[in-house]
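dumping this here before i forget
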Amino acid sequence: MFTLDVQAVASLRQAIDDCNDRGLLAASKWAADLLQYVPPGLRAASLDLTSHYESDPETNVVRREEDQLRTARSFFASKEYARAAHTLELCVSTKARFLALYIKFLMSERKAYEDFERAIRKHQYGARTGPKDYPRQPRNSALASILDGIQRTKDPFLLFLKGLILHRLNRRDEAIESLILSVTAYPWNWSTWEALSRCIKDRIELAKLRHLLPSHLTQLMFQVYSALEREAIEDEDLDECNRILTIIPDCPMVIGWKAQCLYILKDLEEAELLFDQLLVKDPFRIEGIDVYSAILYVLRKKTKLSKLARRFSSMSRDRPEVCCVIGDHYSIRGEHDKAIKYYRRAVLLDPNCVGAWTLLGHAFLELKNAHAAIESYRRAIDMSPQDPRGWFGLGQAYALLCMFQYSLYYYQRAVALKPLDARIWQELSTCYGKINKQLDAAECLKRALAVASRDDTTINLKLATLYEALNDNNLAASYHAQHMETCERLGKGVPEYAKSCIFVAKHYATTGQLKDLEFAITLFQKIANSNAEDNQLAKEALPKLEAFKRTLGK
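structure:
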């Protein structure tokens, strides 16, 4: 098990400056946030240590170019990217080269996304001139020239940039290789781990690559983060969160991850409790607040969600997470037009926010605007094909259009990514039913039953109804009986499972066995003594069954 030592803490502290100097503000913020929750004794002991990964000659070059670097960083901070890149044109240190090339990459990506949005608007509101004029992803013609400048590098930050560019060029295997080399040489750059997560398809591929990753705290964190990005959480990921919390106690980032794991595992009350505690510990933390909002939405806690939306809207409406919270607030109240306004704002603030695109699709579905929902879900899939939410949303949208063959395909993609989700299996079953493949529908419901909560009362009933339609009364009676048992265990009233009781009673009454007949009489007596709609039917059937019982007894 990895443990933090004094040298590792010194390296983490140095990473704040290393990443900040290169314009990797998100990675610098991540490192600073993590450092705050390192045990105080370790932090104090590490203050006198220094940690530099640059060689001495490189350090001397950086020192000579420090004035240009400071000037470029000031231009970068004020978003004057072209001036920053021009300032570094004659610099030769790897730090300056990285910053110059990274700025060029950001400028070219911004232009590519602007052209992409323009093409989409033209497609939606203008003349539709054909599929070639409507790319599914932004096209960046400048990437090849940037890549040429860093082909043979060994610098971990330049390797990170190389991985980003290779991934954008759909050269996934090369991107993974470059990013693994980067995290091996410099594991504290969290942006590299995030980029690596986007390159990896699924848990199976990640398991194959695990032996290539460094034995480091960030590797443990990467395992959890990668699973969260795919919503493919298992119990072992929850254990990983607890392991990380033993190394860095009370870290809000990891507590937020643990709450998100519990949310995906359907332990909503425990996830809500963790987020409540997190907001007390770090009341101004915005990261993960959209997940907390989703939990309150599913639990239908309108008042609490409304308070959360008001609280964070007064802090910052320029964060996509906050826009999603406000959108959820309007959505739970049925004001889907207003919800769409804020979800749109979220994707304008961050066009790569997969969650916001998915929520936008959900809002369009609520308004029965299937075509707009399909476009939103496709944008989510283009950015994160490993996320099952977009595929599931497409299945729902095409089902709304009664295009069940398309719907079937997208549900299959979703369930392949998230096989432990009972809801997807149920929707897949419904889809098979629509195209008259009842046996396939039954198999899907069985898969749903295998992964659903033991307190679920609907799947057994669906299976029973399906087998009734197939005239398989033995299986139908079996699933009706399981439905009855679950309802009785949960303390539900007889009217809620009366129809299942009647079917089971009728089935057992026809077997000709005295023991089965007595069981049928017991069920009819239960219905007759209740306030179920069918109690009169049960009262009328009881004398006939009693007479039949006396006949069998002779």
